[in-house]
């Protein structure tokens, strides 16, 4: 594997596995969320309840044997939280977090693709996500997986809290 120029050699994406989250993953999920959002992270109580409510919609990416990092096998590199609505047959990506050390290596794509496949397997017709318009990396990731901008809401989370609402139609672009 080629070094990125700063002495860091990226990990092999095959040395990580996407799987359903369990209660024992919560401490690492909480740590990932705090690292990503600081004071705006979900509380441990909320994350625990989200796991209870959305069980199969919470996926983690775990380093496997041969994982080339100091954290070693069993370390969580990221997670995705998806809420499905059987009434509307629409899923919402509520959170997608990849440890900053592993961003840009395809792990976010693996998590999101697995979550979309699972939602579509469960019969949803669309998957939606909100994203800050200035987060070009996230917008690019969603676009690359056939999400399109459905709305641009200047006050989505309140005054001045602009978000794009992006949608991926399962019927038009089935995930393989």
UniProtKB/TrEMBL annotation:
Domain of life: Bacteria
Keywords carried by this UniProt record: Acyltransferase, Transferase
One Pfam entry name: Acetyltransf_1
Gene Ontology molecular function terms on file: acyltransferase activity, transferring groups other than amino-acyl groups
InterPro entries named among the record's database cross-references: Acyl_CoA_acyltransferase (IPR016181), GNAT_dom (IPR000182), YpeA/RimI_acetyltransf (IPR050680)
Residue span(s) of domain N-acetyltransferase: 16-171
Gene3D superfamilies membership: 3.40.630.30
UniProt keyword Acyltransferase present: yes
Record protein name field: N-acetyltransferase
Species annotation: Streptomyces finlayi
